[in-house]
Design brief:
The complex is a heterodimer of chains A (305) and B (142). Chain A is an alpha/beta fold and 305 residues long. Chain A has seven helices and six strands; from the N terminus they run H-E-H-E-H-E-H-E-E-H-H-E-H. A five-stranded mixed β-sheet of chain A has the order 3-2-1-4-5, sandwiched between helices. In chain B, helix 1 packs antiparallel against helix 2. Chains A and B meet through helix 1, helix 4, strand 6 and helix 7 of A and strand 5 and helix 2 of B.
Chain lengths: 305, 142
């Protein structure tokens, strides 16, 4: 390779390294924010669980079990798969591992003779599934790096609607759960039918608190709005679908930034290696040119003698 | 006129919106406007989209927020907890956004088949969007 060619390549690799470094730093900053958001959901979910427990106790036993989102369908013919991906790539295996897990599960289900309906959040998942000619029942894009409660409730409404209307009999979610900035793990969760445990169960502190409350002497009259606690319960229970979904979206967002950060870090390191090798190659080429020139001069001088 | 203060928390999925002492809370539930003072009867209620006012103790400062829906709980010990889907200062209210959401909700409702759960959810969404636009009228009149 000529010297000028190598020089041009070094220049372009240096530019790439600048970009990947910048992206790494942007992701690191966003990661911290995404982590905070993911952890701030917890107190909300716990409080919601306490309220639901109160409404369930007031509505009477059995009322909780009869909630349509908790009901297991007799026959599970259609399964909805929700793939939580990102809007953008350049995040290592982040998107592809979700798609792989989802598509594997789909072929598993299809082998059992079931129909699969896809839902995807994130442009990457949507475009990849469309490319594979998979029909998408729902596509949600434009928010994956900072999802809000509104985004989650839009998706949850679609899923709960389809589930209660018997269009789908089961919903599974695939997302990258956030373990640490460097580690993300594909997690598969059954979203619908909702497990009763996720509504009234939960961590032990909360359970203790509520039993303590119940044993506190004569019960005060509680006012309900709407008047029938069962009606309130019917509103509260589907909220858990939204909360679980929001948690998946938030964890996925944190994972996305983590994945991009490490992908960009290794890209920067790789670029540094390439630059080193190219510089060596350039020096060698220059040395060869010089040697060549000297030899020509010497040869010319000898010819004159 | 100052009332005795009590403890109130406002939580949203995005984090804590407010936590502290207030002397009065004014909000909107499915049965209409609701004012809560200290020692209110225990209550569990569904909130509707509307204005949420927190009257702070002492200087009588009022914190005005927009709530898009949620739940209110008055516990046996008198503590008040509001779980809101979303809450932001009234100054951040965006009329154009509310109308765009209303439009979207209407389209959703049109697309849904009557008698289905999807239709019921779309209807609830439309009601919420309508209430937010109506709130805009109210805020403008002031």
């Amino acid at each position: 390779m000529a010297q000028s060619d190598v020089k041009a390549r070094i220049g372009s690799v240096q530019n790439i390294r600048k970009i990947t470094r910048a992206m790494e730093m942007v992701s690191a900053a966003r990661l911290r924010k995404a982590e905070d958001r993911a952890s701030s959901l917890r107190p909300y979910a716990d409080a919601l669980r306490r309220m639901t427990r109160q409404a369930a106790a007031a509505a009477g036993a059995g009322e909780l079990q009869s909630q349509p989102v908790l009901r297991t369908h007799d026959q599970e013919n259609t399964v909805g798969l929700v793939l939580v991906t990102a809007d953008r790539g350049l995040a290592g295996a982040f998107n592809s591992q979700i798609l792989r897990a989802g598509l594997n599960r789909a072929s598993e289900l299809e082998a059992e003779g079931k129909t699969v309906t896809f839902y995807s959040s994130g442009r990457r998942g949507v475009s990849s599934l469309t490319f594979r000619n998979k029909e998408l029942a729902g596509q949600y894009t434009g928010f994956t790096d900072a999802p809000s409660a509104r985004n989650a409730s839009d998706i949850a409404d679609d899923l709960v609607g389809a589930f209660v209307d018997d269009k789908i009999d089961r919903v599974e979610v695939f997302y990258n759960s956030y373990i640490s900035p460097l580690v993300q793990e594909v997690r598969q969760e059954t979203l619908l039918p909702l497990a009763a445990a996720s509504v009234v169960g939960g961590d032990d502190d909360v359970a203790d608190e509520s039993t303590a409350e119940e044993s506190k002497g004569p019960k005060a009259m509680v006012e309900y709005e709407p008047d029938d606690p069962a009606e309130l319960l019917a509103e509260l229970v589907p909220e858990f679908v939204q909360v679980s979904l929001l948690r998946a979206l938030l964890e996925s967002a944190a994972s996305e930034h983590g994945a991009r950060m490490s992908a960009m870090r290794s890209a920067s390191e790789n670029a540094a290696d390439v630059i080193k090798n190219l510089t060596l190659a350039m020096n060698r080429a220059r040395q060869a040119d010089i040697t060549q020139e000297i030899m020509e001069i010497v040869a010319g001088a000898e010819a004159l003698n | 006129m100052a009332y005795e203060p009590f403890k109130a928390d406002v939580l949203s999925p995005g984090g804590q919106v407010f936590s502290g002492e207030v002397q009065q809370i004014s909000t909107r539930t499915v049965s209409g406007e609701l004012g809560v003072l200290r020692k209110h009867q225990p209550l569990l209620g569904r909130l509707e989209a509307g204005e949420l006012r927190l009257y702070l103790p002492n200087d009588g400062e009022v914190k005005r927020l927009v709530q898009t829906g949620g739940y209110i709980q008055v516990a046996g010990d008198g503590g008040v907890l509001l779980l809101v889907d979303e809450a932001y200062p009234v100054e951040d209210y965006d009329r154009a956004q509310a109308e765009a959401d209303q439009q979207k909700a209407a389209e959703r409702l049109d697309a849904a088949e009557e008698g289905t759960e999807q239709h019921r959810l779309a209807l609830a969404g439309k009601k919420r969007a309508d209430a937010l636009v109506k709130l805009g009228d109210k805020l403008e009149k002031r």
